Amino acid sequence: MLTFWGERQRYCDNINRRNFLQLGAFGAGLTLADVLRLKAAQDPSATKSTPQKAAIMIYLPGGPSHMDMYDLKPEAPMEFRGEFKPIRTNVPGVQICEHMPLQARMWDKLACVRSLISTEEHSDSLVSTGYSESTNRIASHPAFGSVISKLRSDGNNDVPPFVSLRGGGSPGTEPGYLGVGHRPFTPSGAGMENLRLANGVNVNRMDDRKDLLGKFDTARREIDATGTMKGMDSFAGRAFDMISSGIVRKALDLKNEDPKTRDRYKGVEQFLTARRLVEAGVGCVTLSYGGWDTHTSNFKELKRMLPELDRGIANLINDLHDRGMQDDVVTVVWGEFGRTPKINNSDAGRDHWAPVMSAMIAGGGLKMGQAIGSSSAKGEYPKERPYKVPHLLSTIYGAMGIDAGYTFPNGAGRPMYILDDRNKVEELI
């Protein structure tokens, strides 16, 4: 598991949150071998192999405006419809914002749900775990990527199953009752050195270091009557395998990409990084883009952010199609809630709005080329096909070949469902 951080975002609740691009070591100061040991120490009966599909979860922190992206209301009064105009997509009957023309031209490869019900929490908890942050303070439900990590613990030793291109320390990146072994792995700074050979260390010298570690382990085994150390040798070996293979490090190095492709992704490089990581075999990549808490200057900010988001999404989805990966990778784009349908008078902004929001989804073998559900004439609440956030998460789990009714034992040994509310967005299936 990997984590990227970036510049700080200050929301209206005055909490600083980081976005993307810090590569470092595993959380809590753990080494690669430590995390591998922690994973194996857990109940092996709770681990099963899953089909090797992947997910890219794009989080828009702060709460993007549904009224100004995928659910415009051109017939509503001006104080609701705002400044933006809808444009046609290449699917008859579906319109989206004029500032997302690239998605409009490829809507047959995309879909959106316009009738999602959320909560008022400024948190990534609900869209990442299926549970509110207040619930998670007690129950500690795991993030989507941590579930993938748990279910693929017996997979490829060279590639971590979960990569977060967002900051750690938020509910949406925490493993909860699955344990710290499923926290994000962060290869940057000192931790990035874990993914490359140390200065002056070639493969032969690395083999010598393996031998040295083996000698230490042998000595420790002699004083460990329980035989625990014997079972730990393989974890150091797997950590060495991950370092020496270089698969993740190469995927993170965008200089390995064609210069023309890098130019297409200029300014939205994390979308390219996400694509390269799933190509390398990572099971779940989550990234964060922009700051969408637009209580002030909503339209000014969206005019700046929407075209860049549009370019990132279009490049990513088109690349996955060009590589024949569209059915093997499911992508979702959403934030924690929508924005108020009525524009606030003082600052030309939109405030928090939990009753309805939109999400874009693509790939995974799901049915594309549609807009699912609708909101009321002023975008205030769901009018048709109301769905809850866990319903879309359950659909994504299903696209990954995972039954959201699967259970893991929590810290007290009680079996816990991945999701309690496991209904699906039927139109996508």
Automatic annotation (TrEMBL):
InterPro entries according to UniProt: Alkaline_phosphatase_core_sf (IPR017850), DUF1501 (IPR010869)
Pfam families cross-referenced by the UniProt entry: DUF1501
The protein's name in its UniProt record: DUF1501 domain-containing protein
